[in-house]
Structures are given as C-alpha cells and as structure tokens.
UniProtKB/TrEMBL annotation:
Keywords: Amino-acid biosynthesis, Aromatic amino acid biosynthesis, Glycosyltransferase, Transferase. Gene3D superfamilies: Nucleoside phosphorylase/phosphoribosyltransferase catalytic domain, Transferase, Pyrimidine Nucleoside Phosphorylase, Chain C. Residues 6-68 form the Glycosyl transferase family 3 N-terminal domain. Residues 94-337 form the Glycosyl transferase family domain. The keyword Transmembrane does not apply. GO terms for molecular function: anthranilate phosphoribosyltransferase activity. Pfam families: Glycos_trans_3N, Glycos_transf_3. The lineage of its organism: Bacteria, Bacillati, Cyanobacteriota, Cyanophyceae, Pleurocapsales. This is Anthranilate phosphoribosyltransferase.
Amino acid sequence: MSNIFRELLKKIGSGVHTGENLTRQESEVATEAILRQEATPAQIGAFLIAHRIKRPTPEELAGILDAYDRLGPKIDVANLPFEKPVTVIGTPYDGRSRTVPVTPITTLILATAGVPVVMHGGDRMPTKYGIPLVEIWQKLGVDFTSLSFPQVRQLLKKTGLGFIYLPKHFPQAHDLVPYRDQIGKRPPFATAELIWSPCEGKVHLVAGFVHPPTEERFQETLPMRGINYYTTVKGLEGSCDLACSRTAIIGLGQPTDPPRFERLLLNPRDYDFSSKDVPLESTDQAIEQMRSVLQAQPCELMDAAIFNGGFYLWRCGVCEDLKTGFALAEAMLVQGKVAEKLKEISTLSSEELAVN
C-alpha cells in the first residue's frame, strides 16, 4: 500500500506546474491508507502538508468523506422516533480560544423543541488547543467521553442529543492528532470534518467556516454526497455560532426539486440584540456564563443564546419566522425547559453508564 500511496502523493505534491488533483476514488484510497496508517509516517506527514498547500477540491473532499463513511461510526437515523431530521453540527475540532461558545445551549434548545442533534469531536488538539465541546459538556454534567457507541445512539434516541467522541468511537481519526501537531497546520481532513456526518440517512448538516472559498467547496461537495439540506455559517472562530458583533453570513441549502442555494445576511441589531461577542477569559468563566443562561439569570451571553437558538429553531422548521424563533428560544430558557433538558440528558447518560 505504501507504494500505491507514494504515487498518489507524487500526484498532489509535484507543484503548480506538474501536480494534479486526485479523483474522488483516489482521494478515498489515500484517506483510507492514512486512517489505517498503511502509509508510512513520512508519507502521511508529506501528504497532509502537500494537500494543505494545494487545497482540496470538492471531489477530493468527497473522497475523504467516503473513507470516513467506510471506517467511521454511523448512526442509522431512519430508526429514530423524531419528526424532524437529525441536525449534525460541524465545528472545528481544535476548539475555541477567543470567544465563549454558545453551541451547547443552542443544541439543548433544539433538543428541547424536538429537533435531534448529533455533534462530533475530540479532546484539546492542535493547532489552537482551544476548549472543545466535549469538555464543556463534561463541566455541564454530561460525560460523552465514557459512553460507548451503542450508548450514544441510545441517548440520542431517548433525549435527542448525541456526541461522537473520536478517541472512543473513531480512533483511526483520533490517531492523526500527532500529525496535526507536527505539521503545525490544519490538514484538509480538518475541512472535511466540518461537513462529515456520522449518520446514515437524511440529515440537516450545519457547518461553520472562516474563509469564503471553504464554503464554496462545501456547496459543491455536499450535493455530491447526497446532502442538499444544509446550513453554512461564517461563525465565531469557524464555528456554527452566529456572531453578535457583525452581520451573520449564512448559506441555506434547500432540498427542493431541483435543490437550490440561498444567501441570508442576518444582522442581530435588526432584532435589538447586543452587538458584542463575549470574550473567552477562562473555561470556568465560560461555564459560569452558560449556567447563568440556563438559569435565566442576566448575563452577557444571554443575547447570543437567544439569537442563535431562535435562528436555528427557524432553520430547523420549528418556527415559521425568525421573530417567533427568538421569542420561543427566550421562553424556553426563562421557563426552565432547557435546563430541564440538560438535567434529563445528564441523568440518562449516568444511567447508561451505570447499566454497563
């Protein structure tokens, strides 16, 4: 396999004049060789940095995701008892370091409203070593790191919330973390992970991005993969969190016949929300802000929580318009329903661990 891989490496690493893009099938073969570590460490490192410099094509991203499908965990969403499609949240695995994330609260709001959500990621990792989602969930009382894959699937079925934890559920992907550190840059796999769905069946995929060319690749890659219901967000630090400090640039992939793409520019000031994002000072500060929101206590993060929660309630089909979504998100927080959902998830996750 290392000899086959060498030819694929030569193809993408030969420079501007003689280098070539991989086909979707070649990209899948290369990715599988990397995930299985059938290529040598030198080859893997060279491939990741060469591919980073070249930039992946939509066909290559589709091939990477084909390999992820072949080797990674898959939840069959067709057998889940939900009226709404599962929303898969794709955020950078290297976490947050500048702004307090609101993603966990958004997912709790959605789950409370009957929209199932699946997240995925690992521990702190390069290049940013920011706060990962799984660590936030632990401090909120839900330890996804200890759940087996069947337990995650069961928790999703019971509560509408699940988390694929790479070290436990997809160790081949987790084993690439040292390479990320050694090359000092996010490899193309980090881009593919934003639009990876660890689910089998129709989903609503949400992906954060920073640079417009990344979103353009998403628009081509996702339909190749049969995903036409998706949302792209130029979010805080590449996450799916809408910023309060600027107009949100959002892409709406609509599963119509034929599928279409629409652009939405959403200014929080048009709806009287704060124009400030909450800076991240420490993990404890972030958790304190989230707990204040869940307890409906006045805090800096409240506007961001309502703004994001209301938008996603509308986007996921719970509400007919944005204003109704914002009002519903606020009502669920004030009435304690979101806090109750967190308590339910924490209790059931602990029960799942106790059984096994």
